[in-house]
Structure formats: structure tokens, C-alpha cells
Amino acid sequence: MGRLAFAARLLSIIMAAIILLLLSLSYLRNTEPALNTEHNRPPALVRKIQRNGPQTPIEVEQPFALKAPRTDVMLVTPWLAPIIWEGSFDQKLLDATYKPLNFTIGMTLFAVAKYTRFLKPFLESAEKHFMQGYRVNYYIFTDIPEQVPRVELKPGRSVVVFNTVKYSRWQEISLRRMEIINKHIMNKSIREVDYLYCLDVDLIFTNHYGAETFAPLVAVLHPGYFNILRNKFPYERRPESQAYVPKDHGHFYYIAAMFGGTLNNIVDVTAACHQALQVDKVNGIEAAWQEESHLNKYLVTNMPHKILSMEYLCNSEAPTPASVKVCRFSTVKKNHAEIRAQK
Ligand SMILES: CC(=O)N[C@H]1[C@@H](OP(=O)(O)OP(=O)(O)OC[C@H]2O[C@@H](n3ccc(=O)[nH]c3=O)[C@H](O)[C@@H]2O)O[C@H](CO)[C@H](O)[C@@H]1O
Ligand SMILES: [Mn+2]
């Protein structure tokens, strides 16, 4: 074999080896079982229906395409996410669809310092109204585990208590929730829930709160800002903050006392808010409404798949708007100065 022919042969062998290596690398990348692959999987409901087969149809009142169930409120956003109001859903139909799937619903609740006093009424009301007939795990974060009350739980429901530190400022206790929830999902102390709800504890359930709220990412209209121009929303308006939203941006103002969704979505939203909060801290700036400002900033571009109306967060200290036919989750009156005082 001539020198030239040998060199050509060698070159083609090297080229083939490189192509093979590149192909196997891209195969490995595609098959890597990282947590991130969750993003590409169909939602839990679709997976389970694929596994179990379709559910049996049940008798419901016929819906008509030309008849809106309600005409006084917006039922779907411009990006086609439903807004949930009394009269817009059939609870029987939803339960017949979802209950056979045996979902587990997780809930994170922080009760630090004096806020442990809210746990008993919260849990007792949740046992009456929240996700009846579903499996529920309450994840309670507290610095005083002995003050977690014993509340009688229905079958399939449980309380898990995690120790957490008490930061000296109430704002810090509130905003650190993003970081803590994120860590507990990443280290797998919270797992195997189909949906996770992250709630304030100074609230009580006052009516049905169930499957109509299931979505990959769900947020709630703030009862104080549902009918004002967006340039008046209490977004963070200083460009130096990571939570900055310009006056002509945004759709709805959401309340941080409740957001929920699938674990991968909650990982994303809590990670984004935690990172933004850290950058703000380094820059010596705290957003107007702490994590609520960061949550709202996130939701400007990552719009929720479903929005809950103010029925899902009623302000017990203000008149109920006419559009709210049922209050399902209501604030508890509290003396801010007393409860946030250190002693
Ligand atoms: C009326 C008002 O002021 N609203 C703001 C206030 O909501 P809130 O007044 O509802 O805040 P909050 O005092 O309920 O704190 C939020 C949550 O953090 C936990 N917690 C807080 C303090 C504490 O000592 N122990 C404890 O466990 C607890 O789960 C509580 O529900 O603050 C939020 C966090 O920024 C939002 O900005 C709200 O818009
Ligand atoms: Mn609160």
C-alpha cells in the first residue's frame, strides 16, 4: 500500500471513530435519567390514564358550546388558561375522572414562632374541605414541633413535620419558604405527590376545595387587586430589583399565600424565586412584597396553566365581591404587630 493510500485509510478510520463517538454521546445525552426529563413527560393525569385506560363516563348535565356557564366573569385567559369560579365546573364529573387515579396531594405549611397557633384551625378545616376523598400529605415546617397539634385525620391523610429555623424578621421567615420548599423537593424529603400546594397558615378552609384546582402550575387572583389597571399593581417597580416589572407588563396580580402544581413546576418556580431573592440580597434590596413580588415577576413570563378566582382566597376583613358566590379559603384575622413581635 502506498504512503498516500495508507494515510487516506487512516484518516477515514479516524473520521469513522469520531462519528461513532459523537453518535454514542448524543444517545447517552438523550437517555440520561436526570430530574429534568420530568419536563418532557406528559402530566401525571395523562400518564396514569395511559396506564389505566379511560375512565367510565358518568351522567352530567349537557354542556352547550353556545351557552357560557357564567357571563359576569372571565372564564379563560388570553393564553387559554381556565379561571375557576363557582358554576364553571362540575365537581361530580371531576371527581369521577380524578378519584380513580388515586392521586396524592402534598401541602407545605410554615408555622414558625407564634404562627403555630394557626395550625389547629387550619388542619381541622382542611380535613373538612380540602381534597376530600384524595390522599393528602401535610408537610409542616416549624421551629417548635411540640406545638404541632394532634388533629384527627381521615384515612389516607398524614402529617409530616420538618424542623426549620426561625429567622428574626417575619419577612425573612416568609421569603425563605421558596428556598426551603425547593431544597426539600430536591433532596427528596417531599416526593411522590402528584400535586403540591404551598400555602400560608393564617387561613381556614370554609368550603369545597378540590380537583378543579389541579394543574401543572396554578396561582390565585389577589383579592385586593383583581379589578385595577396593571400600572397600579403592587409589583416591584425599582429596576435594581430582580422582581422589577415595568408599568405596561403583566396580566393579573397573584397572591403568594397559595401557589401549586406538579413537583417539577414547583421546583422551577421556587428555584427562580430563591435565586432572584439571593441576587437582591447581595445588592442590598428587598422587593416591595418579598417573595410575592418575585412570584409575580416569574408568572409574568411563565403564565400559570390555571388561575383560581378570589373564591380561593377571600379576605375576611373586606367585603366579599359580588362575583364571589362561595368563599373556599379565607384569611384569619390577626394582629400583625402582636404576632410578628419577637416576644
Ligand atoms: C397584608 C400583608 O401584609 N400582606 C403581605 C404579607 O402577607 P401576610 O400578612 O399573609 O404574611 P404572613 O404574616 O402570613 O407570613 C406569611 C407566612 O409565613 C409564615 N410565617 C410568617 C411569620 C412568622 O413569624 N412565622 C411564620 O410561620 C406563615 O406560614 C405565614 O402564613 O406578607 C407576604 C409575604 O411577603 C406578602 O407580601 C403579602 O402580600
Ligand atoms: Mn398570611
Automatic annotation (TrEMBL):
InterPro entries: Glyco_trans_6, Nucleotide-diphossugar_trans. Gene3D superfamilies: Spore Coat Polysaccharide Biosynthesis Protein SpsA, Chain A. The active site is at residue 292. Keywords: Glycosyltransferase, Manganese, Membrane, Metal-binding, Signal-anchor, Transferase, Transmembrane, Transmembrane helix. Mn(2+) binds at residues 200, 202. One of its GO terms (cellular component) is vesicle. This is Globoside alpha-1,3-N-acetylgalactosaminyltransferase 1, like 5. It comes from Callorhinchus milii.
